[in-house]
Write a sequence for this structure.
């Protein structure tokens, strides 16, 4: 993603100064924008798919992002950003840009709908169900939010120790109560 953002910045700077090679910088701007959008989708897809951790240590390989689901999330997000760009052309462009934006939006919308629907249903969900893991992208984020909220609530109800520190008193209190259950 960083490479794409650097490509964009360089292309924007030099496209105004170039005369004969302006098309090179335009292609570089397009490629950098596409790469940044794609890698942003891949990052979100990798996070949604799950990052292998055991005992607070990363246990996976460096290629979790190469699975089908994160790559498909990258394609879906790139299509979504292209559709947003087409909408921007329709809203802010002159007549020829508006026509181009409308035509692009008509072509992109069916692809965006299919991509968004398929990202919501991960093909690995059947395998994840077997392991007892949640299904669907939105459900994964909702469960992560709920578990974070539960942790914050349980932290706020922990009794305070003499020094005002919740963690010392909480460990002894909850540890003792668990032993007797």
């Amino acid at each position: 993603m960083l490479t794409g953002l650097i490509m964009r910045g360089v292309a924007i700077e030099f496209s105004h100064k170039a005369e004969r090679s302006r098309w090179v910088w335009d292609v570089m701007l397009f490629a950098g924008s596409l790469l940044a959008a794609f890698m942003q989708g891949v990052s979100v897809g990798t996070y949604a798919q799950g990052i292998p951790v055991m005992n607070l240590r990363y246990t996976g390989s460096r290629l979790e992002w190469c699975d089908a689901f994160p790559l498909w999330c990258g394609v879906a997000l790139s299509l979504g950003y292209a559709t947003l760009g087409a909408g921007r052309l329709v809203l802010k462009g002159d007549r020829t840009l508006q026509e181009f934006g409308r035509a692009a939006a008509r072509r992109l919308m069916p692809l965006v709908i299919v991509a968004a629907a398929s990202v919501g249903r991960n093909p690995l969900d059947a395998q994840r169900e077997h392991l007892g893991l949640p299904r669907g992208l939105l459900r994964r984020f909702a469960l992560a939010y709920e578990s974070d909220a539960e942790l914050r609530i349980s932290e706020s109800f922990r009794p305070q120790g003499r020094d005002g520190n919740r963690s010392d008193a909480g460990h002894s209190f909850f540890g003792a109560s668990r032993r007797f259950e």
